[in-house]
Amino acid sequence: MKKQIDRFPPGKEAEDYYYRTLALVAEDYRPYHAFFSQVDTSYAGNSATPEESTGPAGKQNGAQVNVTILFDASGSMGAKIGGRTMMDTAKEAVNDFLSKLPEGVHVSLRAYGHKGTGSNADKAKSCKSSEEVYALSAYDKKKMKKALAKFSPAGWTPLAASIRDAGNDLKNETGNNVENIVYVVSDGVETCGGDPVQEAKKIA
What we know:
Pfam families: VWA_2. Helices cover 35% and strands 20% of the residues. The chain has eight helices and seven strands, in the order αααββββαβαβααβα. It has helices at 2-6, 14-25, 30-37, 86-99, 123-127, 141-148, 159-169, 196-203; strands at residues 59-60, 63-72, 80-81, 84-85, 106-112, 130-138, 178-185. The strands form two sheets. Strands 1, 2, 5, 6 and 7 form a five-stranded mixed beta sheet that branches. The protein has a two-stranded antiparallel ribbon with strand order 3-4. Strand 1 (59-60) and strand 2 form a beta hairpin.
């Protein structure tokens, strides 16, 4: 790394050096791209759209809908795209998504990776950071904006632990008339040794 960085041309902008450094350590996603490019996305027919729901306000087909947002606050969310951090863009997207939900839907927000730093010394602390910052309730734009403002890009990515915690948050929301949705907002993969797929299967 040091030898490669020493070869960087002088006089470039900070963002240029950031992406040059990122290229040295970034994971190769080409095998994943090849795999997903071959996935058959055909379907038999159109499914119902949200506005076609005939259930009461805040319900789909008569079910109470609960949406839990899992928000990645790891350090990589501080990277910039188009002059804005990925975290700022993601926060805006979350508010936009929630504002378009039917009236009566209950929402919650859980941040993860929002404590510590990306250093190895802080890994244990950061990998334990998973916190519900907006308890399951009706969507309130001002309260949600305040909850989103509580954290900024920080440490590692305990996605699996956050999914497990989301399951615990929703454990009492059961029954034939209840539909629970866990919505993950992230720019990367699990970095704390957990298995997000297995945790998702457990709560499913």
